[in-house]
Design goal:
Shape: globular
CATH topology of the largest domain: Rossmann fold
Structural class: alpha/beta
CATH class of the largest domain: Alpha Beta
CATH architecture of the largest domain: 3-Layer(aba) Sandwich
Order of helices and strands: EHEHEHEHEHEEHEEH
Distance between the termini: 27 Å
Number of strands: 9
Number of domains: 2
Radius of gyration: 17 Å
């Protein structure tokens, strides 16, 4: 069984989607620990309510990013975590962290990457005037929102959208997509494919229909 940990910073709605899917028997993995870097993160309470181990490790208690990440690594390793899911975790991870979980750290971003990386992706989409945006689940690399894409879901931008209305629909799509990917990870349907020299690495995400011989 795949063992995974979740890192979060705030409300934890993406974490809740994972917890709900686990409670419904849709995810066959073992969520070992939820770690938040903010003491007020609602994600901690969501984890405790579901009977999962929850721990706050405030990043402000550490003199450097490397020291904070080293604490995260040691905590996750103590729980024998195989994969790390970033569910609204508002910190950039160092190379030292990523090297401890090579190609096994997953992030969720509210745009169709590589479009609109970084913060305020919904407002970026509105400012640019696109008619279609969406969300992306990707492996984490050292760059910002630059790792290989695992899966994406499209969301139409309406003429009367503001940032709040658009982000509301993006969050709904995020919850569904993240659950789908975590489910795939736990069923060994996510395959990392390193690129040849000078080429980008890619990820193959086998959908259930492909595994079962469907289209």
């Amino acid at each position: 069984m795949v063992r995974f940990g979740v890192l979060a910073s705030g409300n934890g709605s993406n974490l809740q989607a994972i917890l709900d899917a686990m409670a419904a028997g849709e995810i066959a993995g073992d969520l070992r620990i939820v770690i938040a870097n903010q003491p007020t993160a609602k994600a901690l309470q969501r984890a405790e309510n579901a009977g999962k181990k929850a721990l706050c490790i405030p990043h402000r208690d550490y003199a450097s990013r490397a020291a904070f990440d080293a604490k995260l690594v040691s905590t996750l390793k103590a729980e024998q975590v195989d994969w790390v899911i970033l569910a609204g975790f508002m910190r950039l991870l160092t190379k030292g962290f990523l090297d401890e979980f090579p190609n096994r750290v997953v992030n969720l971003h509210p745009s169709l990457l590589p479009a609109f990386p970084g913060v305020n992706a919904g407002q970026q989409a509105l400012d640019y005037g696109v008619k279609l945006t969406g969300c992306t689940v990707h492996l984490v690399s050292e760059g910002m929102d630059s790792g290989p894409v695992i899966a994406q879901a499209a969301v139409r931008v309406r003429d009367d959208d503001d940032e709040q209305s658009l982000m509301s629909r993006l969050h709904q799509a995020e919850h569904q997509l993240l659950v789908e990917v975590v489910k795939g990870i736990c069923e060994s349907r996510v395959e990392f494919r390193p690129g040849a020299p000078g080429e980008r690495a890619k990820v193959r995400f086998l959908r259930r229909s492909s595994v079962n011989g469907g289209p």
